[in-house]
Structures are given as C-alpha cells and as structure tokens.
Request: fold
Amino acid sequence: MGKNYAIIGSGRQGTASAYDLACYGEADLILLADSDEHQAEIAATRINRLLKADLARAVLLDASDVTSVTELLEDHQIDAFVAGTPYSLNLGLTQTAIQTRSGMTDLGGNSDVVHAQLDLNDQAKGAGISIVPDCGLGPGMTTTLALYAMEQLDEALEVFIWDCGLPQKPIPPWNYSLTFSIGGLTNEYYGDCLFIRDGKTTLVPALEELEMLDFPEPIGTLEAFTTSGGITTAATTFAGKLRTLQNKTMRYPGHYDALKVIQRLGLLETELIDFEGREISPREMLHKLWEPQIRAAPDTPDLGIIRILAIGEKDGNPMEAQVQLILYYDDETGFTAMEQGTGWHAAIITAALAHAKVPFGVIPVEKAMSGTDFVDEASKRGFNIELELRPTS
Reply:
C-alpha cells in the first residue's frame, strides 16, 4: 500500500524532497503546500513533468495557521510530511503533527527550536509517530555521514565535519551564491556552536577558528570556520563518548574576511536599534541589502561538499576514516547540488518514518537511521560517497 506525503513549504528544497519521495517513497499522493499558490503549482507541475505522471497536487496553505494545517493533514490522511518552512514554524508544526498522528521531518537549523521539539518526545511516542528535526545537508546528512565514518572504526574518538554549498565558479565580490533562506544563512553566522571538546558539550563562538582545506581541482583551496546549528543534538548524544565533535562551513577564500566585517558592524544582531527616530533590526536591514547581491539564479551551476574525518581505533591499531561526498548541479532534472543534498536527505528519512522504520518519538537525526543504511539509500540516488580508511601515526 502506498503512502500519502505532504511538503509544507514548496520552495526549492521542498520540491526536491517531493521528487525523491515520488521516485523512492512508494507514494500514492504528494501535496505541495505553500502560502504562495503559484509557487505550489510550479512545484507540482515540475514534479509531474519529471515523472510523466499525475502524482503531485498543489495546495494553498498558511503553515502558521494550525487549523488549516490540521485539516490538510487529516483530510488527506497524510502519513508523513516534510516541513520546508522557516525554522520559526517548526515547533508549531511538530505539535500539529502529534495531534494529527502524522510523521514529520524538517530542515532544522536552529538549536533552541530543535531542543524545544525534543521536549515533546513523550507526546509523539504516545501518538505512535516519528518526528525527526534537523534533516537536510547540514545539519542532517553531515551528521548521518559522520555516523557512517564512525561505523568504520571499532572506537571513534574524534570527529570533524566540514560542509558547504557553493557556486561552481566563484562570483565576485562575495564568491558565494545563496540557494536557501537568507534567514537560515545568517542564523548560522550568529551566536554559539554546540560542539564537543574534551568529551564535554561546549559552546564555541560562530565565525572563528579559520583553517584552509584542499580539494581536487577545479575546486582547489577552501577556507573553513565555525558556524552554529550544524550539530545540535549530536553534541549531547556523543558527549562522553567522543573526545571531539565539531563542524565548520567552507567558503572560497576571501569570504570569511567579509563576514567578519559584517559581524563587527553589528549587522548580524537582531535587537532593535534607533535609526533617526525609527527602530530597525540590523539583521533585517542586512537581509534587505545583501540578499539581492548573493541570491543565486535558479539555473546557477553549484556544488555541495561534505567531508568527514573520524579518528580512532580499528583492530587495536590507530585508524582514521575519511568520508567525502561532492554533489553537482544535475542538468537532467535541474536540481541543484544544495537541493539534492538537502531535499533528498529529508526525503530518505521521511520515507523511512512513513514505513515505520524509525523509532516513535521526537528522534534526533543521529538516532533515526544508521550511516550504513543511509549510504545504501543514497547510492540509489547516484550519490558517490567515497570512503578511505588509513592508519594514523
């Protein structure tokens, strides 16, 4: 028997999730719901065109309206849905998912919201459903592939995560193109990161600890620095088990210096300030000025990179496992690397919970699926996940 899915928030990442669920989730129905009805229709039409089938339907929906979301999920007997909405709506959608007994994944990105969702674990378990926050590229697949790296060792002691989504060709002056929410981007650059240092969950400031990493040409050298929201629950799950767990975001050289200027000017702050008699949010002003400069055109060729290094022991010998995935814009489907990495990870987890393969409750992404099982699923999508085991000195 097939499953009924909904995508609440039918933008770029949500559309990619819908496509993947249509291909691999044994779907009977996929609802593309959005507050912009035209956007929902574009997404549904695109999915049906790619599939050469009539599986996707567009629906007008205000995701902040609890009554409307409840009616949508109940009227269409939705087994599971992807919340492709801003993270500020995820807690309310979690509560509605529990009420309607619908499984849910979301694209996460804010540690405080995720921890509030986890507080609803007993309610979700009582409803007999699974909810998995923090899916996507990073957070999400970065954590799942970190599991995969750890699974190659008898004991992992340190895990380092690097990831990015970038244009294939740097575009001056920022050398960066935005393919998701500007609010999600600036959230990563602000506040503290939840890491594990010396075996303990630790707060580390964002936009610090710059380092350089080398990749095969034409990518070349990238800079990496701390960003928030990339690990969240794993920093608690593996505390006392790992000595180190951390993630950094990568960019083309030069971008970090520009971010530090933005930070020092206070433009990432959210507290209202007085500007000539008017109260304004520095971050909202930054969004207004910056987004038009960095917003990627839909057909911009991009790439996504995840690199994991797990250090520990295997067969009594010091060993490290490196896992690497490089994604590129797909000319055949038109899905960007970021859409594939974000949307398809969420879809893989969503299909698993719809088929009761995930424990009931609000489940951290690192406990939802093993790394090995995920890699098996990812290989069906053509993801070339490289694994290298090597001794350490």
Remarks:
- The chain has a mean pLDDT of 94.
- The CA atoms of residues 126 and 364 lie 17 Å apart.
- The domain at 3-136+339-375 is CATH 3.40.50.720 (Rossmann fold).
